[in-house]
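Model it.
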Amino acid sequence: ETPDGVKVGSAVTEVSWWENRVFKDGAALQSEIKGEAAVLDLGNGRYLFALLSHANDSGYMAGLAPRIVVDRDGLAWSLEAIKRAEGLSGRIAVPSEHFPMLVTFTDIKDPKSVKEVDPANLGATFGAGYALKSITLEVANEAVTEGNVATVLGWTKTHAGYLSGKKILDHDRPESNLTLGNFLQKTKQ
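Modeled.
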């Protein structure tokens, strides 16, 4: 919700899961994602990004559908949960505890200006009249979204490392620990 009405953004991400054949002290499953963050144009040069992964959870997108199935059906993380996640149909509301990390930039041309956005209080970042109505997940058979992030963030081809420009983690600002990998995975920039 914005002062100018409802705005909608989306992205199609490809998620692949397979059994970890090694499995010695490691995860039973491995995953790979291909796609980009969802970009929501709020107008007036302001954008909201729903990231592919959190600064501290690189497997966020790969685990989203199974987490929803786990919450709904009480299943443990398993091949069964993956198969059930692959069988999801229609739009499913993402519970707030499973929301992606949301960020914006105070200056879209400056990666250092990245700022985490509280999904429960968009107004704190964008002003009165801004509120998150919903986040949904839909299993679809469509082409992976490419190019939206690079179009909005013109610096994606020239920036490397943490968006903050620092070489070490910034514990005071977790959003500064983000890299382009949180926005783009195995897509063309």
